[in-house]
Automatic annotation (TrEMBL):
<dbReference type="InterPro" id="IPR006176">
    <property type="entry name" value="3-OHacyl-CoA_DH_NAD-bd"/>
</dbReference>
<dbReference type="Pfam" id="PF02737">
    <property type="entry name" value="3HCDH_N"/>
</dbReference>
<keyword id="KW-0560">Oxidoreductase</keyword>
<dbReference type="InterPro" id="IPR006108">
    <property type="entry name" value="3HC_DH_C"/>
</dbReference>
<dbReference type="InterPro" id="IPR036291">
    <property type="entry name" value="NAD(P)-bd_dom_sf"/>
</dbReference>
<dbReference type="InterPro" id="IPR022694">
    <property type="entry name" value="3-OHacyl-CoA_DH"/>
</dbReference>
<keyword id="KW-0520">NAD</keyword>
<comment type="pathway">
    <text>Lipid metabolism; butanoate metabolism.</text>
</comment>
<protein>
    <submittedName>
        <fullName>3-hydroxyacyl-CoA dehydrogenase</fullName>
    </submittedName>
</protein>
<comment type="pathway">
    <text>Lipid metabolism; fatty acid beta-oxidation.</text>
</comment>
<dbReference type="InterPro" id="IPR008927">
    <property type="entry name" value="6-PGluconate_DH-like_C_sf"/>
</dbReference>
<dbReference type="InterPro" id="IPR052242">
    <property type="entry name" value="Mito_3-hydroxyacyl-CoA_DH"/>
</dbReference>
<dbReference type="Pfam" id="PF00725">
    <property type="entry name" value="3HCDH"/>
</dbReference>
<keyword id="KW-0443">Lipid metabolism</keyword>
<feature type="domain" description="3-hydroxyacyl-CoA dehydrogenase NAD binding">
    <location>
        <begin position="4"/>
        <end position="184"/>
    </location>
</feature>
<dbReference type="InterPro" id="IPR013328">
    <property type="entry name" value="6PGD_dom2"/>
</dbReference>
<feature type="domain" description="3-hydroxyacyl-CoA dehydrogenase C-terminal">
    <location>
        <begin position="187"/>
        <end position="281"/>
    </location>
</feature>
């Protein structure tokens, strides 16, 4: 699978695009408007600096070659025209994902394999909206994919086992360590562990127990961890926890989503990738 199309160029979508191109894949980056896509060169510059900082074998020449393998378009039919595999990284809303896959199903070639990068939603909740559910599954990435390079592969009961293995091999080809999830699990392995931790930090903040900085400080000093929950929120970006919390049955999660919207998202403080989140970054 040489030709990859990524739907969504946000924090994680852009990382999947860049990492795949860095690994030698030809990548089409799709988003809803040319205005959104016009911001990608700035994002590539940010990622180039990160790769040079974090990867011993990264060179300017390799990074420039990666960018040359990326093509951006806001035309969905064009984006899908020769895709061997599509990875969807649109907002974490079941309705948005279902609508996206209905459109993709109508346009993609028969050869195309479909993968969602959903953080918490089950493939079986989206599969009915795909016209080839046997070729649909989840491929989930951790944030900062060039360093934290897990690729969690999770099918639904109707996923073809050979497609499952093809996607696991693809994950390895783009530098991920494939983690085979043997049954559907909301949050896979990673987020089944991470989300309760982040929710606990958010609850302490919402209830006024301590500031984000002091919550992070407590966790790091007491456990030796390099990051606290709010530093992790900044890496993930504000949009994902906002979408996860805004319609939650839990009033604390809803209030946290409201705080994110009012005090951070509406003020352009979208997380580390934007330079500002709970913390400010150079």
């Amino acid at each position: 699978m040489q030709n990859l199309t990524v739907l969504g160029t946000g924090v994680l979508g852009s990382q999947i695009i860049f990492q795949s191109a860095y690994a030698g894949k030809d990548v089409v980056a799709y988003d809803l408007s040319d205005e959104i896509l016009a911001k990608l060169p700035e994002r590539w510059d940010y990622l180039k600096a990160a790769y040079l900082r974090d990867l011993p074998d990264a060179t300017a020449e390799k990074l420039d070659a990666a960018v040359s393998r990326i093509r951006a378009t806001s035309d969905l039919a064009d984006a899908l025209s020769d895709a061997d595999i599509v990875i969807e990284a649109v907002p974490e809303s079941l309705e948005i994902k279902q609508q996206t896959w209905e459109k993709v199903s109508a346009l993609a070639p028969e050869k195309t394999i479909f993968a969602t990068n959903s953080s918490t939603l089950l493939p079986s909740a989206i599969a009915p909206f795909v016209d080839r559910s046997a070729k649909f599954l989840a491929l989930h990435f951790a944030n900062e994919v060039w360093k934290f390079n897990t690729g969690e592969v999770m099918g639904h009961p109707g996923t073809d086992p050979e497609v499952f293995e093809q996607v696991a091999r693809f994950a390895e080809e783009i530098g991920m360590v494939p983690i085979r999830i043997m049954k559907e699990q909301p949050g896979y392995v990673l987020n089944s562990l991470l989300v309760p931790f982040l929710d606990a930090g958010a609850a302490l903040f919402v209830k006024g127990v301590a500031t984000p900085a002091d919550i992070d400080k407590t966790w790091k000093i007491a456990t030796g961890s390099p990051s606290g929950p709010f530093e992790i929120f900044d890496v993930v970006g504000m949009m994902t926890p906002y979408y996860l919390g805004k319609d939650s049955a839990d009033p604390v999660k809803r209030e946290f989503a409201e705080i994110l919207k009012r005090d951070y998202i509406d003020r352009g403080r979208l997380g580390k990738g934007s330079g500002h989140g709970f913390y400010d970054y150079e």
